[in-house]
Amino acid sequence: MSPATADSRVPVLFGSLRGYQGQWLRRDLVAGLTVWAVMVPEAFAYATIAGVPPVVGLYAAVPALIAYAAFGSSRHLVVGPMSATAALSAATIAEFAPGDSDAYIVLTTVLAVVTGVVAILAGLARLGFVATFISEPVLKGFIVGLALTIIIGQLPKLFGVEGGGEGAIGKLVHVVAHLGQLSVLTTVIGVLSLVIVLALKRWLPVVPASLAVVLVGILAVHVFGLSDRLDVVGEIDPGLPTLGLPSTTWGDYAQLAGPAVGVMLIAFAEGLGAAKTYAARNGYEVDANRELIGLGAANLGSGLASGMVVNGSLSKTAVNGSAGARSQVSGLVVAALSLITLLFLTALFEELPETVLAAVVICAVIEMVDTKAIVRLYRVWTPRLGGTYGSAARADFVGAIAALLGVLVFDTLPGLIIGIVTSVLLLLYRSSRPSVRPLTDVDGSWVDAQAHSDHPVDPAVLVVRVESGLFFANADHVKDEIRRRCTPQTRLVVLDAQTTPFVDVSGATALAELTDDLARDHIEFAIAGDIGQVRDVLRTDRVGGPRPFTTVAEAIGVLGADADSEATRDDPRRAGP
Predict the structure, then answer these.
(1) Do 241 and 302 contact (CB within 8 A), yes or no?
(2) DSSP string spanning 64-123?
(3) What does the alpha-carbon distance between residue 27 and residue 47 come to, in Å, rounded to a whole number?
(4) CA angle 423, 428, 431 (to 5 degrees)
(5) Is 540 exposed, middle or buried (0-12, 13-18, 19+ CB in 10 A)?
(6) How far apart are CA 235 and CA 396, in angstroms?
(7) Residue 78: is it exposed, middle or buried by C-beta count within 10 angstroms (0-12/13-18/19+)?
(8) Looking at the chain, which terminus has fewer C-beta neighbours within 10 angstroms, N or C?
(9) In sequence order, what are the beta bridge partners of 547?
(10) Residue 35 contacts by C-beta under 8 Å, 6 or more apart in sequence?
């Protein structure tokens, strides 16, 4: 079935519920209840990361869950406030509403609306492929840097000290410098909450650790009368939020359009990764364009309900999947329970200690500090890569570190841009310096001579391959490398083009120039295995160039009779791939 045919059979609304079976309902109800237990405290926590009142997290969760279930394509993805987009929201809005809390809250909601509109338009334009332009290593470094930034930002609440400093590094220095002023009671409760949540997640994962700690913290404040000695969340207005577009000027919407694109890219990349992971595990596919529309609908719904930016959550999707969810009915259950919480249970959370909430935030993002992934990127290196690309051999590691440090030093969006730009520059550098490897004949296959040094190489014949396409950015480098490998004994050069997927006019011109250059030194130049685009370009460009042959052995047999070894003349063999 073609993709187009498959898409045409998916309903516009609630397409992920197609083929729903009645026996799934019990599992979806249990999964919804489990996710709700995690969602409520984390929604409060992520709202504080975004710099808005904790209840805004629940305002966002209810419409986001319903809208995504209506328009998204994943059966398992849970959408709601998340740390990465919350931090991006805070960094963005801080530039437009410094020191004005009312304007800050309004613009946070505006950002959700604009992000939603941008994502819907991108989905309708079928731009789902854009997520591929943020490489996984850059995204990993960005998320690690973001997680560290969030953790550092929660330390003042955890220790009961005044916040201060600019940027993550400045805030960390400020906290360390003021540790002598910490509140012992606040620190004990916060650190104890942190330890309990981490311990429960590791040894009793079936227990909703965050909710348990939140309820114990509220109970402790109420029983021991600690509200005067601890900072607590304070009054939370019960009931439904104000519905409709945020009351502000159209200029505010326009000025947030640019930042909304960056927020949308991160939200989409993170959510799509989670959706694809669970789709693969459960034997179905997700549509990237429908995911964009689902993300947009979720953010638009959140913004129209006085909420904040939302996106798909890998951690809560994991909870959903492990609890047995079979469809987005579980998400609708979470939305219903969150609505009940808004209507009847908000007063319960008014005595929640800020230090406990900080502990919940830290525990929610600490898993994002994936040092093993960074170490794995560093280990992707060999002497051959180092000799070819130098310091750019660890391109993925460098891109990840650039994004990580960019976030820590320059803030979130600049950090992401730094990571992407670094990654692209390293890609361009590596593309301009492809590996040009001399080959040797091993049982009829022409393979890397350096890796098979025990096989003799005829000094009169140089067989090389270019491990890249041949185009304007690397044509001179390839020409120079081939010329450099020629010796006074060389009488024939054969370019094995089977590893060269394409060539442009600049590359063809460079081969023609190299042919003339070698001819002056009485060296023949041939190309073997030129297929597809390479053959088409070389045959239509008509600027001269190396003589074409089907195989390396054929080229040597025709042009290198005098230079070839006795074994090659007597037993010419066809080259393998």
Answers:
(1) no
(2) HHHHHHHH---SS-EEE--HHHHHHHHHHHHHHSTT-HHHHHHHHHHHHHHHHHHHHHHH
(3) 29
(4) 125
(5) exposed
(6) 47
(7) buried
(8) N
(9) 526
(10) 78, 316, 319, 320, 323, 325, 330, 331, 334
Query: Is pLDDT of 445 > 70?
Result: yes
CB 269 within 8 A of CB 134: yes
> Pairing state of beta strands 492-496 and 524-528?
parallel
The answer to whether residues 512 and 545 touch, using CB atoms and an 8 Å cutoff, is: yes
The per-residue pLDDT for 572 is: 42
On whether the pTM is more than 0.85, the answer is no
Tokens of 287: 């549509």
d(CA 269, CA 133): 10
- pLDDT digits over 491-502, tens only? 999 999 988 889
Q: How is residue 25 written in tokens?
A: 């309902």
> Which residues make Cβ contacts (< 8 Å) with residue 568, sequence separation at least 6?
441, 458, 553, 556, 557, 560
CA angle 489, 491, 496 (to 5 degrees): 115
How far apart (Å, rounded) are the C-alpha atoms in residues 59 and 43?
9
Taking only the tens place, the pLDDT of each residue in 1-47 is 333 333 445 556 887 788 888 888 998 998 899 889 888 888 988 99
Can you tell me whether residue 450 is helix, strand or coil? coil
What is the Cα–Cα distance from 267 to 88, expressed in whole angstroms?
10
DSSP code string of 281-346: HHT----HHHHHHHHHHHHHHHHHTT----EEEHHHHHHHHHTT--STHHHHHHHHHHHHIIIIIG
The answer to whether the beta carbons of residues 266 and 312 sit under 8 Å apart is no
Residue type, 193: S
Neighbours of 205 (CB within 10 A): 11
